[in-house]
Specification:
alpha/beta; eight-stranded parallel β-barrel; 13% strand
């Protein structure tokens, strides 16, 4: 009967996806069904029919806007509801003139009904977002899709989804979850998430990690297989979902969950402790965040500061650019938080093609190497100054470090510093209180910056190595291209030599050197990172306890010995094999500690 399977067939259905938030949970499924209504298609034969469709569209947009405002009002009455500001993003999309005009243009020029015009517009925006190199930004298409689905529901007269109010704790199953979806959920009733689509940077993944519940995304067809009240197991560590497990499978996973919880509890003992080796080498530990809501997880897991605050989310999917006050309010919620000794705020790493309001913005052949990050900031100085003013104002409330991304040469860092100095002078003349010890850093993620590190070190207070992009650029690969992703190897000898060079140059110049890419939080690389004598590692908060545990059970001496051994090797395969064997022998249980 279509997708509905018999009871026998439905036992122990195993689905493989992407584990984005670790842990094991068993519970009842709750199918959060927000699929598109069926979209009809018909041609408009007369001008009168076109006018009628335009009115239908405007009415549906108005109804959608009223529905979002009402949803925001109801949610605002609840205590502890987060991500309310995301509803404002959806309201901005509904009010975006270019978005609505694109739909109206389809109705007029293609002579098609409003539903079909909305579908064509969503598809057009999907193409735009899919061309974006940045994985996180590509995932923001979910906001456009959510708004499009809302308009479609109102066009066909389908009522808006009621608030998520299950009677007991459940595992939420969905095609995808937008920020507005999770905003209206009673999060304390959610045991875990499983979705058809998504990645490690999708909204579902970020929310799951921030509230520390298991999640698996990219399952492709789970919404066609699972029904509400089905028994389900989510293994967020291995990326597995098991539908209707039999008693023996349930028993095994309950045992696995106990092991996970015990291992997690063992790791968490190390969270409040400093990351110091047995022979006294100390390394600072920071947390990477994109949302303010992640700060409790950062503190719980033992970060000493914010090692990387990605500020891009403030800019995307907006009709208007964020004001200085919006920036300032956000930064004040990060800077000076009790228990966090510093906040490294990265200026936005976007390009002109990433701003939502005009889908016709020219696309670059290779935007990853085009006008983005510091290059875009130095071209759009007024926009850059708004962010810098807000960061400097926030520095009055706690220790702030400003990190400039994608620095490729000395001219960029000097130009950025000159603009910062100008902004600082303006604020001081106006009598605005500022911090006196704001540090300036360069993100080392471009090979030319590695080669120019000695010169750059004389211009900044610290380096932060962004391994995600550095590895991609050094090895000339696209991480998101499955055909070459196997070449993405953090332990490649060229990558290790570049990192060592940056650390050596930085220390010689008397500045500290941090690492903030995914490599920094990988337990298998812990001894290599120690051997490189980095001053700071900043990572996903959930990875911190495990890294601290390994560091505390290590010595700098053994780490430098391992590094010396691998630096004499000429291939990534040889290095990986050697490191893997060493870590398995040295930490037979430690690498299995949950995170």
């Amino acid at each position: 009967m279509g997708d509905i399977l018999s009871e026998d067939e439905k036992k122990n259905i195993v689905l493989k996806g992407i584990g984005v938030s670790p842990g094991v949970v068993t519970g009842k499924a709750y199918l959060f069904d927000r699929l598109d209504p069926q979209v009809s298609f018909y041609k408009l034969e007369t001008a009168r029919m076109i006018t009628k469709e335009e009115k239908r569209l405007r009415k549906a947009v108005k109804t959608s806007e009223e529905g979002l405002r009402e949803l925001k009002r109801r949610l605002g009455e609840r205590e502890g509801v987060k991500h309310l500001y995301i509803i404002d993003v959806h309201l901005m999309i509904l009010r975006d003139r270019a978005f609505i005009q694109h739909i109206l243009q389809q109705i007029r020029e293609m002579s098609v009904n409003a539903e079909w015009a909305v579908r064509m517009t969503i598809d057009a925006y999907r193409e735009i977002f899919e061309k974006m190199e940045d994985e996180y930004l590509r995932e923001r298409f979910s906001d456009v899709r959510y708004v499009g689905q809302m308009i479609l529901r109102n066009l066909v007269g389908k009522k808006q989804e009621t608030l998520f109010q299950p009677e007991e704790k459940v595992i939420v199953i969905a095609a995808d979850l937008s920020p507005a979806d999770t905003a209206q959920m009673m999060i304390d009733k959610v045991l875990g998430f499983a979705t058809d689509v998504g990645s490690r940077t999708s909204h579902t993944a970020i929310v799951a990690r921030s509230i520390e519940i298991p999640a698996v995304v990219g399952l492709e067809n789970i919404t066609r297989i699972v029904r509400t009240n089905n028994e389900i197991i989510i293994d967020g560590s291995s990326g597995l979902v098991i539908v209707n497990p039999d008693p023996e499978v349930l028993r095994r996973y309950e045992e696995k969950n106990r092991h996970y919880q015990d291992a997690r509890a063992e790791c968490m003992k190390f969270a409040p402790l400093p990351a110091v080796t047995k022979d006294g080498f100390r390394i600072a530990i920071g947390g990477n965040i994109e949302f303010i809501e992640e700060i409790p997880s950062v503190l719980t897991n033992g970060a000493e500061g914010i090692g990387l605050y990605r500020t891009e989310f403030l800019y995307i999917n907006r009709e208007q650019l964020p004001s200085e006050e919006e920036h300032f309010t956000n930064y004040c919620r990060v800077v000076g938080v009790e228990g966090l000794h510093w906040s490294t705020i990265r200026t936005f790493d976007l390009g002109g093609d990433k701003f939502f309001s005009d889908p016709k913005l020219a696309k670059e052949m290779n935007p990853q190497m085009g006008l983005r990050a510091i290059r875009f900031c130095l071209k759009e100085v007024d926009l850059f100054k708004v962010q810098l003013r807000a960061i400097l104002r926030a520095s009055a409330f706690g220790k702030v470090r400003i990190l400039f991304p994608m620095i490729s040469g000395i001219e960029e860092i000097r130009h950025a510093k000159a603009i910062l100095a100008e902004v600082r002078s303006d604020l001081l003349r106006a009598g605005v209180p500022l911090g006196s010890d704001v540090e300036i850093g360069a993100m080392i993620e471009v090979p030319s910056a590695v080669m120019m590190a000695e010169t750059l070190a004389r211009e900044v207070d610290f380096f932060s190595i962004g391994t995600n992009d550095l590895i991609q650029y050094v090895l000339a690969i696209d991480r998101i291209n499955e055909r070459v992703s196997y070449l993405y190897e953090p332990l490649h000898p060229a990558v290790l030599r570049m990192i060592r060079h940056v650390v050596d140059v930085g220390h010689k110049a008397g500045i500290h050197v941090a690492m903030c890419g995914e490599m920094a939080g990988e337990p298998a690389y812990a001894l290599i990172l120690l051997g490189l004598e980095l001053d700071e590692l900043s990572m996903n908060p959930l990875a911190i306890p495990k890294m601290k545990m390994i560091i505390q059970d290590s010595t700098l001496k053994e780490s430098k010995k391992l590094l010396k051994e691998v630096m004499s090797m000429s291939s990534a395969v040889e290095i990986c094999g050697h490191v893997e064997k060493m870590m398995a022998r040295r930490f037979p249980d430690g690498l299995n500690c949950a995170h």
